[in-house]
Design goal:
It contains eight helices and seven strands; from the N terminus they run βαβαβαβαβαβαααβ. It has about 250 residues and is of the alpha/beta class. It has a single domain, classed as NAD(P)-binding Rossmann-like Domain (Rossmann fold). A seven-stranded parallel beta sheet has the order 3-2-1-4-5-6-7, with helices on both faces. Helix 2 links the parallel strand 2 and strand 3. Bound molecules: nicotinamide-adenine-dinucleotide. Nicotinamide-adenine-dinucleotide binds next to helix 1, helix 4 and helix 6.
């Protein structure tokens, strides 16, 4: 397990699912965790879960699609914690349910605003701060959809392709200032977002789990958290612009 004592970590979308799992893992490793989400109740619940084992967690409300929110978030975290060592850009909205011709424009706009512009705005503020420090590591949460499209998920898939593009290009830009940027492509992970997608899937739940992993089970938020912490650690100090699949082997087939 990494020792992140005296480190400051920020996780967006940390009020649920994978983001919550990553926030808990950072706190267990000793970091001071900025738990951020648009969902106040979910974010505060994550903080209570961190405090229950004696960890340091603090809630910062933020809608990542709003530039003012994101710059205020990073400024507040740095004011309170003194630095920003790690950031995980995890907040996103889930898959649409229509075939492309029927996707409402407003759905396209919202998915792109949160999943793409949100990551872009977070990267801007985080890189600026980390450049001043001369060090830092950032992980963006993409999806296996960035490699393999699914039925009726055109816009979500496009948004996750964009996350890979942002990750890889930003990794080049930021390497010279001491900032490492990588991504994770989760497969089917047991979270509220996946539950919603399974409810809308025409195939049965078991069939989907079978198709989405080599080992007949869903992934857990902890599986993604371990990868995120490794990518932030010095053990990954020669890893730049990489996307790590945490997918139960889904992309192998
Ligand atoms: N669960 C999966 O199977 C799966 C697979 C591949 C990728 N992912 C990705 O993992 C990440 C986390 O997904 P999850 O399954 O935990 O989803 P989730 O819905 O459980 O959690 C997402 C969190 O993001 C927050 N959020 C939404 N819009 C926001 C905004 N504008 N500003 C700030 N926070 C906002 C939500 O309130 C929620 O707490 C996402 O990037 C998702 O695309 C998930």
């Amino acid at each position: 397990m990494q020792d992140f004592s005296n480190k400051s970590a920020l996780v967006t979308g940390a009020g649920s699912g994978i983001g919550r799992g990553i926030a808990l893992a950072f706190a267990r490793a000793g970091a001071r965790v900025a738990v951020s989400d648009i969902d106040v109740a979910g974010g505060e619940q994550t903080v209570r879960m961190i405090q229950a084992f004696g960890g340091a967690g603090h809630f910062y409300p933020c809608d990542v699609s709003r530039a003012g929110d994101v710059s205020a978030l990073v400024a507040a975290v740095v004011k309170d914690a003194g630095s920003l060592d790690f950031a995980v850009n995890n907040a996103a909205v889930g898959v649409e349910t229509d075939a492309l011709p029927d996707v409402p424009e407003a759905v396209f706009d919202r998915i792109m605003a949160v999943n793409v512009k949100g990551v872009f705005l977070c990267l801007q503020q985080q890189i600026k701060q980390m450049a001043q420090q001369g060090r830092g590591a950032i992980v963006n949460i993409a999806s296996v959809n960035a490699y393999r499209p699914q039925n009726r998920q055109s816009v979500y898939t496009a948004s996750k392709h964009a996350v890979l593009g942002l990750t890889r290009n930003a990794a080049i830009d930021a390497a010279s200032i001491g900032v490492r940027i990588n991504a994770i492509a989760p497969g089917a992970i047991d979270t509220p977002m996946l539950e919603a997608a399974l409810r809308n899937a025409p195939a049965g739940r078991d069939q989907i789990i079978d198709k989405m992993s080599l080992i007949g089970r869903l992934g857990l938020p902890e599986d993604v958290a371990k990868a995120a912490l490794w990518l932030c650690s010095d053990d990954a100090s020669f890893t730049y612009g990489h996307t790590l699949a945490v997918d139960g082997g889904y992309l192998v087939r």
